[in-house]
Amino acid sequence: MLNRRRCQRRQRGLSIVELMVGVTVGLLVVAASALLVSGQLTENRRLMLEIQVQQDLRASADIIVRDLRRAGIWNDAQSIGVWSTENPTPGCNLYATVVPDGSSIVYHYYRSGAMNSPLGIKLENGVLKTAIQGPSTPSAGTCEQSTTPSSWQELTDSRTLKITRLNFELVDDGSDPEPLPCPKLCPSGGTECWPLLKVRLLQVDIEGEAVSDASVKRSISTRVKLRNDFVEYVPPSSTQMCPA
């Protein structure tokens, strides 16, 4: 009988102290696991935001660079003769103007028919915008070109990406041009009246942040050489490119 009572005492459940200790340890393990999972989810969300911001900036930069490379393209350049040793009095290139102005740039290139208005990129209220319409390009015979597009459309999505900085800078503005040879020398017997070839190189800087998390910031910088180099008459007001 005595052994049976001792056996019953040994088979009793946990004491309240032991139960509380066990519950506390369990809660600590659960809290640590929840904290770990929460940290992983936060890092994953931040990583996805960083990737999205970087991809959006890269896509925008690619579009801008691809379009800027076309600046100055003119479908009638060969027939009219923007520059030719056989044609000393060519017409002006109506698409040569490229005007960078800090957070905006305006440029031209021939597209089709009458759709030859000035194009451009600008930053407005945290959104990159591209010009799609403006005053028509002047007819042949005048070198004046409009630099005021009138219609713009969004290039980036303001719901996911905020552009904080956009900068265009001519790192090489053609300040050291090369003379293009003409069939004849200048009246003075020199080459000072020969046209000048200016090679232009643009630096494009874009910075942006995620709309949902301003701490997620990215930037991208790229350089683009304008493929259609600028030919300048000497003097600039003249339409006589080479001595007659």
TrEMBL record:
UniProt cross-references to Pfam families, sorted A to Z: N_methyl
Sequence intervals crossing the membrane: 12-37
Superkingdom in the source lineage: Bacteria
Designated name of the protein: Type IV pilus assembly protein PilW
Alphabetic keyword roster: Membrane, Transmembrane, Transmembrane helix
InterPro entries: N_methyl_site
